[in-house]
Amino acid sequence: MTLLERDEQLTALDGYLGEAADGHGRLVFIAGEAGVGKSSFVAQAVRQSGSRARIAVGGCDGSATPAPLGPLVEMLPDLPDGLWPDDAGRQDVFGRLLSELRTVDVTPYLLVIEDLHWADEATLGLVRFLARRIHTCRALVLATYRPEDAPAGLGLRLLLGDTASATGTRRIDLPVLTAAAVATLIERQAGFDPATPRLDARKLHEVTGGNAFFVTEALSAGTGQVPPTVRDAVMAGVSRLGEDAQRALEVVALAGARAEAGLLGDLLAHGLPAIDEPLDRGLVQRVDDEVVFRHELARLAVAEAVPIGRGTHLHRRLLAALEARGADPARLAHHAEQAHDRDAVLRHAPVAAARAAALGAHREAVRQYRRALRHADGLDDGARADLFWALGYECYLTSRIDEAIEATEHAREIWDRQGERVRVGDAWRCLSRLSWFAGRNEVAEDQGRVAVELLDGTHTVELARALSNRAQLRMLASDLGGTQELARRTLELVDTLPVSPERDEVRTHALNNLGTMEITAGDLDAGTALLRESLELARGTDLQEHAARAYCNLVSSAVLQRRHGEARRYVDEGIDYCVDRDLDAWTQYLQGWRSRLLLDQGQVAEARAAAEAVLLRADLAAVGALEPRVVLAHVHARAGSPDAATHLARAAALAEGMREIQRVAPTTAARCEAAWMAGDEQTGARLALEAWPTAQAADCPWNRGSIATWLAADVEVDLGSLAPPYALERAGDWEGAAEVWRQVGSPFEQALALARSGRKESLSEAVRCFERVGAEAAADRARILLRTRGWSVPRTTSAARHPDGLTARETEVHALLREGLSDAEIAERLVISRRTAEHHVASILAKTGASSRRSFVVRSTQT
Q1: What is the CA radius of gyration of the chain?
Q2: How open is the CA angle 44-118-275, to the nearest 5 degrees?
Q3: CATH class of domain segment(s) 808-862
Q4: pLDDT tens for residues 399-427?
Q5: Cα(45)–Cα(599) distance, rounded to whole angstroms?
Q6: Global pTM?
Q7: What is the widest separation between alpha-carbon atoms in the chain?
C-alpha cells in the first residue's frame, strides 16, 4: 500500500529512528482527526523500519472503561520476560521498561501506542514518564491521538502541555488529503474495477473534507453516490453482506476494539468462516490472532445499528465467554453492564476499580466504582458503604473534591446507622480534610473536632489520624500553641500503638505538622530538623504523598522567609521527586511556589510564565491556585496592566474561603501594594486593618509583617512580633529595611521601601530599582512622588531590556517564530544547530508564557 501525501512525515520518522539507534530516543505524538489515516501511517512506518527495530504495538480501547496500562499489556509478548512480575507496582514496571529501553543493543525499540485520546490514567502516566526520559533511551515511541478528543485541561491535553518542551518529544500533524489526492484515489479505483461508476472528485473532497477514511468508505460502498454521512457509507457496505456475515460483524463490533479469533470461533453460529466475507470486503482486518475494524468510526456505526434486544443477548454471550477465559475485569465489567447482569457487575467492577487504583489509574477507578454503585441496590449496607468510601478516596485523588465529599458522606451515614463508631469518626476526619481542600476551613475545623470527640478513648490509629488532622489545621492557621499541643498528643498515642505501616504514616504526618509550624513561628533549626525527619521517614517507607507534602512545606516556608538559596534547593529537589513519581498535584503546588520565588528574586518574565502554566490546569485545587494567582496579580499591577484587577479579585475570593493567614496575608499585601501604586494609600490602610485581627492572632512574623507594614501610623503594633524588614519599615527606618531586602535578594521590596521613605535620594534610587525589574507602574508612582515635592526625576536610558526578558539571540528567534518557521527553518536561517534552535524556542515559550507554538503566534498577532 502506498500512502498519499505522507512522504515528508515518513522521512521524519525514519530520521528519528536513526537518532534512537544512536541512543537519542524520541517520543513522537502523531496528531490527526478521526479517519485521517493515523493507523495506516504508523503501520507504514513500522513496515519501513524493517529489521532496523524491535517492534511492539499496543492500543487504547475506547469501547469501555479502559483497563489500566492496556497498551503495555498488549506489548508484553514482544518485550523481554520479567518486565511485569506478579504484584509489581506501577513505578517498578515503569522502571523496568525504562531500564530495558536504555540497555538494549544497537537495534532500537519501536513502540507504538495507538489512540492515546482513550488512554487510561496509568497509560498517560507511562507516556509522561517516558517523555521525560526518552532522550536517554534507544527507542522511538509513536503515540497517535485525535486533537478533537483531547479538550483543554483534561488528561491528554495536560500531558501534551507538560511534555511539550521535553528534550526528546516531537509532534507530527497529519493533514487531510488534498483534492488532488482524492482524485488519485478515484482514478485508482477505476483502474481496479472499470465497471465502477466514477465519483465527482471535487464534490467528494468537499463532502468528506479530505478525510481519508470517509473517502475510502465512500469509494468502497460501490453505490456510485457520495454518501451524506460516514455511517451511511459504512452501513452501505454492511448491507451487501450475507446475513451470517452481518451477524458475525455485529459480534466483532460489540466485542470491543479487538475480537480474539478464539472468542469469535466460540460465539459465531457458523464458526470463523462467517467472518471471511467481511474480511474479503475490507470491512475488518486480521491483526495477528485478532479481528479488528479498519477504523473505530466503522465499529461504532455497526455497534449502534444493533437492535437493543439482540445487543443485550450478544453482550451476555460475550460476558460468559470472556469470564471462561479469565479476561481483564475492566472488560468484563463493561459487558456485564451492557448485559444488564447486576451480579456480574458487582463481581467485576470493584475488582477492576481496585486494580486500576493500584496502578495509579484513579480516574478509571472512579468510573468502575460508580458502575458498581449503579447496580448496588441489592447489596447489604456494609458493602455499599465500602464502595462509597473507596469511591470517595479515588475522587479525592483525582481532585473531584465535591464528589469525594458526597461519597464519603454516604458511607458515614450508613456507618452511623449501624453504630460503627470508629468508622464514623474516621469518616468525619476524612470529611474535614476534604472540606479544607474545598476552601471551607470553618467547616473543616468543626468536622475535625467531631472526629476527635467520637474517637476519644478508642486508643486506635484512627484517633491518632484525627488528632494529627486537627494539628494540621492548626498549623495551617499558624497557631503555634494549638499545633504543639495536638501534635504532642498524636505522637504520645502513636508511641503506644502496635508497630504497623499505619502507625508510621501518622508519625510522619504529625512531625510534618509540628516542624512546619516551628519554622513558621521562627524556630528555624528545630522546625527544619523535625520536617527533615518527616521527609526521611516518608522517603524511607515510600509514603510518597507525605514526602511531597514535606517538600511543599520546606519550600513554602523558605520562600515566605526569603531564604532564597534554600528555597531553590528544596523546590528543585521536590519537583524532581514529584515528577519522577508523577505526583502531579504536588508538582503543580511546588511550581506555584517557584513562581513566587522567581518573582521575589526579580525574575518577572519567568515568574509570569511559571504562574500561568500552573493556572492552565483544569484539575487545580483551590489551595494550589492561590499562589500563582497572587503572583500574576503582582506582575500585572507592577506593570500597570488592567488585568491586575481580575487576578486580585480571584485571589481575594480564594483567600476569603480559606481564612488562613498564609492565604489572607499575601492577598492583602498584593491589594495594598496595588493601592499604593494607584496613589490610594487610604484604601491600602483600610484593607490592612480589616486583615489585621487574623494576622495578629497568627504565630507567623513574616505574614504578620506583610500586613502590618501597610497599617496606618496610629495603629499599635508589637515590632518584636514582625519579621526584621517589616519591623524596620514599621519603625520608619525605610533605608534600613531596604538594605535588609537587598541582602536577602528581593529587589522590588528594596525599591518599595526606598519609595515609601519619602526622601529625595531614596525616591530617585527607587525609580531606577523599579525600572530594573520592569515595574513601570511602581516607577511611575515614585516619579509622581518626586514631582509633587518639586524634585527632579532621574533620567532613564531609552535602551530598555526586552519586556519578556529575551536575550539578543532569543529576540532574533522570536521574530522568526512569529513568522511561523519550524525549528529546522529557524536553524537554517540563523546558521545554528537544530538542537540550539529548539532550546531557544522552548525558552521563548516559557518566558512569554505561551503554552504552545500556536498560542504564541495567536498572542503575538494580537499585540
Answers
A1: 31
A2: 60
A3: mainly alpha
A4: 788 999 999 999 999 999 999 999 999 99
A5: 46
A6: 0.74
A7: 101
